[in-house]
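The following record pairs a protein chain with its ligand, histidyl-adenosine monophosphate.
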Amino acid sequence: MTKKFSAPRGTTDILPDGVPAWQNLEETARRILKTYHYQEIRTPIFEDINLFVRSLGEATDVVNKQLFGVKSHEIETAEQAAMPAEYHPYALRPEGTASVVRSYLENSLDSKDQLSKLFYIGPMFRGERPQKGRLRQFHQIGVEAIGPNNTSPYLDAEILALAMHLLKDFGVQGVKLKINSLGSKEDKKIISSLLREQFAKYKEALCEDCQSRFERNVFRVLDCKNEACRKVVNIAMGTDVHLPLSVESLQYFNNVQSALKDLGIPYQVSRHLVRGLDYYTHTVFEITAEGLGSQDAVGAGGRYDGLIHELGGSPKIDYGAIGFALGIERILLSKGNIIQSPHRLNAFVVSVQPYEAFQLVHQLRQADISADMSFSPGSFKSQMGRANKLNTDYALILGEEELKNKTVAVKDMRNSTQEAVPLNNIIDYLRRALR
Ligand code: HAM
């Protein structure tokens, strides 16, 4: 037998039975995003590879191990990622923030001197080791608010309120919000050297990954799950509730927290929360849900004010930017396999005369009435059986008698009543009946 193909590792097909759940989620998202005044943006699914290297950071796992190069092959090392552009000039997008900032600047959205409130829904690609809730092609609902002079704690609170509102209306249970502040760009540099100093004494006790993180990105040691590393972090960090921030950064973080309290949004401060992408400063957050096992983050985000200059924003403008992304697969997984009612069909035409059936089906569709028929030869009985299975409102029967009298026998599939309707009146009849 000829070999069948399988979907690539870490990807899934969303079959027709599963699609209504996705559509419901997307419709709910669009409705809520509109009330917060966010507008949709659509960017390509691949970009210049250096956009991701520069935005997310060369030392991050996403760039270092997980980028899918478009031209040649999956990129495995930082050296390959840093290779000349001709080698693999593009990569599939591993996330949406870098692309949105690229588009924001390329299309001069900053010239409008106002906050751009943008959202996107679409696939992202990371060459991770697949497991429950961790895929190589997954989908995000992402939100980015970018603009001049908008570093306001109220905007941070709006973004968090929006993320929580979306998850509530999606019906996700056991949602927990963890927040932290990484401080300004300058704070981050100071904290990095402080952390290095603290961890230096215990370097040998850290796991292999953290020993290399120690040099490249010491922040990541803070959120390592390894038992030994957690111990080192607890000893080195003592009882401080957050990272050693400057007075201004701490004030900003306190203001964000007051705004959250005013809105009645429960949260927890976690000093270990640092996130895996380099572009964050100040507020960072992660949202988890119950029932997901180890991959329980349904969403995450934070401020990335510095990224806009990093990607070529005008030095004269003081940009602020904050956003988040929610993982659609994890949201659906957390809700369990809820079977949604399949699409209803308004009419199924039953006839042993395919020509007449086909004409009627076409007429109905032109009048916006969903209709179908059987394309394989079959008895009245088998066609009626199919109409039943398809969750159809009406079976339209064109038997010999009906064809002779130019009528249709309309059978209401919900209560099994039947009525003869003149063929030239069928559209009006169904429109009224379906109202
Ligand atoms: P992230 O934390 O890398 O952030 O991803 C956000 C969410 O996407 C995660 O919380 C998770 O639900 C989902 N996700 C990530 N990787 C996978 C995967 N391999 N399989 C399934 N789901 C996954 C970002 O992507 C940032 N761009 C968020 C952001 C927007 N920050 C500011 N603006």
